[in-house]
Amino acid sequence: MTVKDDTVQGASRLQRPSAIYIRTFEPGNNWEGDFGGKSREDFIRQELALFDQRLQSQLQEIAPASAVPAPQPASGFLVTGQLTRVHAGSGAARYFVGGFGVGAREVVGRVLVFDLAQSSTAPVLSFNIEGGSRGEGGIIGGVENLDAEWTRIARETRNLLLKKMQP
Length: 167
Known about the structure:
Layout: E1 2-3, E2 9-10, E3 20-22, E4 31-32, H1 40-59, E5 65-67, E6 77-87, H2 91-96, E7 106-115, E8 125-132, H3 138-141, H4 147-165
Parallel strand pairs: 3-5, 3-6, 4-6
Antiparallel strand pairs: 1-8, 2-8, 6-7, 7-8
């Protein structure tokens, strides 16, 4: 999973927020692959909930992190975004064939970070993310969800925020 450096837009420096809120990413319409016997809708719902958990876990290292409450707070960071392509891949293909990109998972999207004290419509930071399992084969590649991708996106989001907060 990589942050596309040439797609990073926004403030060169950010102040550490008092809290971070996570709004579930917009799933988009481009989900493909093996949904592990679940309906497409159930799979997407499960994966987005898992992604929210991974973001919360990683962003806790910066400030207290939680799902965005209603009504939306007037301060803190709001992290959300859009997924433009999600390919769940094929666990069976990864397990039996392995490597060479067979059955690979892929996630492409955009992360948006809002400083709610400034605006809830104009992000202070936004960037594209792209990546996936690619060559992971065997048992590791046999995972039936996108947890590794969500963890990578959450980690890269945390790392970029921390980099922007450096003095």
